[in-house]
Amino acid sequence: MGTQEEDPTSPSRALLSCIFLTCIALSAAFSATDQSVSRPLKKLEKPVVILISCDGFRFGYQFKTSSPNIHRLIADGTEAELGLIPVFPTLTFPNHYSIVTGLYPAYYGIVNNQFVYPKTGDAFTTSSHEPKWWLGEPLWETVVNNGLKAATYFWPGSEVKKGSWDCPRKFCMLYNESVPFEDRVDTVLSYIDLPSSEAPVFMTLYFEDPDHQGHQVGPDDPRITEAVARIDSSIGRLIDGLEKRGVFEDVTIIMVGDHGMRHVPILAIRPPPSYSPSDFVAKMNEGLESGRVENGKYLKFYLEEELPSRLYYVASDRIPPIIGLIEESFMVEKKKQQECGGAHGYDNALFSMRTIFIGHGPQFARGKKVPSFENVQIYNLVTSILKLKGAPNGSSAFP
Ligand SMILES: [Zn+2]
């Protein structure tokens, strides 16, 4: 596996400009920040954004238990009233990287949590940190490009050294799931104490919960409730620390999840070269629709280029030619096995795949509700709050 920056797998420039135009045509119908309510900074010299991800925080989990700290952010901030819409496929790596690049997965190349690049046979896994896999410009790189400091306390892609981002030891934590949430919060707080010229203006903070529990027990188990309470207390620790430093009203907190949770990973098939993908799709769908396959009507195969255009899952040679879309609640098993947990990866239009969006800080109106929107809009939201020049991505509706 090479480490060259030049990536033979990248979509052509023509394709990239094509998606930018498509995104512009779709321009967002809402604005999460509101210039008319913008409040001046009291203590900090520069705007600061802490972007928090709670993995698999399905929309609605915030009502599972008393979560006073999350609800404080909601009450005093701006919330996507019916949740944040993930990108397809509704999986951890693609969604986290869409949040920080403003791009759909086909255009930065992380098209699945794991995949094989057919031209070379190289396998991408969640521990692949070679820059050749990771296209697009993440927020930490944008911040550094603008002459400022960024810090990442875990985020898919943050350990990849690309462009001006070299994953500095002090500000780029190497993924270790055993680090207690409290330590993560305390480290982020310690960055606030640095002299203004040294302090990061953008920080990520990642929590594995409640995705971890969701996979084990499904969305309705009491262990999810416990995980939500634990997230809430971590948010409380962050708020307390910011208040003690007198900067809670100055710092922007954006709290999101990457996807929801529902009782199946994406079904992607690359048939042997001797098989025609279109014949394969026709035969599979014929069989599924014949009535001879149990629950066959709940699965449909598509050629990649014939997938619904709203999924933006096309135009990357990293995407296998055949994709199966599965109806909610169903999953495809390789063999008979016990299954009582949860999964994600379904169509991103499903309500169960939605997650949360809460924005709290000087640029967010208090107590405001906005309609649901796709997470690719968050990149421009952050660059506008930080007043940075961002990379072009087409999601340009924010003021
Ligand atoms: Zn996830």
From TrEMBL:
Residues making up the signal peptide according to the UniProt record: 1-29
Keyword set, alphabetical order: Signal
Gene3D superfamilies per the UniProt record, alphabetical: 3.30.1360.180, Alkaline Phosphatase, subunit A (3.40.720.10)
Signal in keyword set: yes
GO MF, any single term: hydrolase activity
GO cellular component: vacuole
A Pfam family reported for this protein in Swiss-Prot or TrEMBL: Phosphodiest
PANTHER family cross-referenced by the UniProt entry: BIS(5'-ADENOSYL)-TRIPHOSPHATASE, ECTONUCLEOTIDE PYROPHOSPHATASE/PHOSPHODIESTERASE
UniProt name for this protein: Thioredoxin-like 2
